[in-house]
Amino acid sequence: MYVTTDTDPQVTLAAIAGAHGIAGDVRLKLFAEGIDSLKRNDRVLVGERMLTITSIKPGPNPIVRFAEIVDRNQAEALRSQLLTVKRSALPPLEDGEYYHADLIGLPCESDAGAPLGSVVAVENFGAGDILEIEQPGGRRTMVPFRDGVADLKDGRIVVDPVFLA
After folding, report:
1. What's the order of all strands across the beta sheet hosting 140-144?
2. How far apart (Å, rounded) are the C-alpha atoms in residues 25 and 69?
3. What ranges in 3-85 are assigned the alpha helix state H?
4. Is the pTM of this model over 0.70?
5. Is the CATH number of domain 10-89 2.40.30.60?
6. CA 20 to CA 62: how far, in whole Å?
7. Closest to 142 in 3D by CA, of 126, 119, 158, 111
C-alpha cells in the first residue's frame, strides 16, 4: 500500500475512463493541461497501486500502458480510479502561476481581514478559474478567480464580499 503524508499530498492528473484494446491499455480523462504532465512521471499512483507508465499515446483521451497491467480484464478493473502523483513531482511554477491543488483549503478573507470561508474546489469551464468557497455555516458560493474579485495574497484568498451575497 502507498501512504502519503500531509506535507506532500497527492495531486490528481487524470481518471481511468476504461480499457482500450485487449493488451491492458487504458483511456484517460485528463485533468491536467496536457499529456506532458504525465510524461514527467514514470510511476503514478492509481487507486492504491503504484504503476509504471511504459507508453502514452496522445489524443483527446490519451491511451496509457502500464507495465503491471497485461490484459483487458486488469485494465477494466482500473475503471474510474484516479491517477495521482506527489505534489513535489510537479514542475516548479513561475511568478503568478499556481496549481489548483494549492488553492484548495486556503482561507478566504475580506480586504479588512474578516473571515469569509475557505476554498473547497477550483473549476474551469473555459472562461477562467472559478473558486468554490464554503462560507461559515456551510453555504457554498462560486466566485471568479480574477483581480479585484478574488486575489491570492500571502497564502490566503482576498475576496470582494459583494460576490458572496
Report:
1. 140-144, 129-134, 115-124, 107-109, 156-159, 150-153
2. 8
3. 36-39, 72-76
4. yes
5. yes
6. 10
7. 119
Question: Where are the domain boundaries for CATH 2.40.30.60 in the chain?
Answer: 10-89
Q: Name the nearest CA neighbour of 30 among 62, 69, 64, 53.
A: 62
- Going residue by residue through the chain (165 aa), what tens digit of pLDDT does each one get? 334 445 778 888 999 999 999 999 999 998 877 788 888 889 999 999 999 999 999 988 999 999 999 999 999 999 999 999 988 888 888 887 888 888 999 999 998 999 999 999 999 887 889 999 999 989 999 999 999 899 998 889 999 988 887
Tell me the fold of 100-164.
SH3 type barrels. (2.30.30)
Beta bridge partners of 18: 27
What Å distances lie between residue 149 and 72, 105, 118, 139, CA to CA? Answer: 48, 18, 15, 19
Cell of 21: 484494446
Q: How far apart are CA 121 and CA 98, in angstroms?
A: 14
Q: Tell me how far apart the alpha carbons of residues 85 and 74 are, in angstroms, rounded to a whole number.
A: 21
